[in-house]
Amino acid sequence: MADINLKGMGVALITPFKEDESVDYEALGKLVDYQVQNGTDYLVVLGTTAETPTLTEEEKKHIIELVVTKVNGRIPIVLGLGGNCTRSIVEKLKNDNFDGIDAILSVVPYYNKPSQEGIYQHYKAIAEATTLPIVLYNVPGRTGVNMTAETTLRIAREFKNVVAVKEASGNITQMDDIIKNKPANFNVISGDDGVAFPLITLGAIGVISVIGNAFPREFSRMVRLALAGDYESARTIHHSFTELFSLLFVDGNPAGAKSMLNAMGFIENKLRLPLVPTRITTFEKIRDVLRQLSIKC
Question: Fewer CB within 10 Å, N side or C side of the chain?
Answer without folding.
Answer: N
